Amino acid sequence: MNNAISWFEIPSTDLMRATKFYETIFSTNLVVMDMPNIRMRLFPIEDMQNGIGGAVVDSGGFHKPSVTDGPLIYLNANPDVEIILSKVEAAGGKIVVPKTPISEEFGFMAIIIDTEGNRIGLHSL
């Protein structure tokens, strides 16, 4: 196993709003992938074979946003988590834990609440 994570899904109740939030804070375009029972907006990755992928998802209720429950995923905020944090509130999110040093070896982290009510971690070296 090369990576502990192979895929993640961030719940959404308003996919357009969530897409705009993540595209704004990461200055990117999410990729549309709609299937019969689930609509997804994928985070772009360069290497589909070896990269870790994920998406913002609207599954009609199967996925439920949560501020406190469930796993906490950390999204890549390199080169500096502060760049992402500077866009969060203007994009409709909330900063719960500001940029915080982990260690010299492991960099920095922060926690935000997205527009859907999900608790999301950010990490940069």
Question: How would you describe what is shown here?
Answer:
The structure is a single chain. The chain has a single domain, classed as 2,3-Dihydroxybiphenyl 1,2-Dioxygenase, domain 1. 16% of the residues lie in helices and 36% in strands. The protein is built from two helices and eight strands, in the order E-H-E-E-E-E-H-E-E-E. Helix 1 crosses helix 2. The longest helix is centred in the first third of the chain and has 12 residues. The two termini are 23 Å apart.
Topology at a glance:
Layout: E1 7-11, H1 15-26, E2 31-34, E3 39-42, E4 53-58, E5 74-76, H2 81-88, E6 94-103, E7 107-113, E8 119-124
Parallel strand pairs: 1-4, 5-8
Antiparallel strand pairs: 2-3, 3-4, 6-7, 7-8
Q: Architecture, CATH level 2?
A: Roll
Task: Describe the main β-sheet briefly.
Answer: 4 strands, mixed
The class by helix and strand makeup works out as: alpha/beta
Q: Can you give the helix content as a percent range?
A: 10-25%
Count of all domains: 1
- Strands of the widest sheet, in order across it, are 1-4-3-2
Query: What is the name of the CATH class?
Result: Alpha Beta
Rough outline:
globular
Order of helices and strands: EHEEEEHEEE
Q: How many E-type strands?
A: 8
The whole-angstrom Rg is 14 Å
Beta-strand proportion: 35-45%
- Mean pLDDT across the residues is 91
- How many separate helices? 2
CATH fold label? 2,3-Dihydroxybiphenyl 1,2-Dioxygenase, domain 1
Tell me the distance between the termini: 23 Å
Superfamily at the CATH H level?
Answer: 2,3-Dihydroxybiphenyl 1,2-Dioxygenase, domain 1
Low-confidence stretches: none
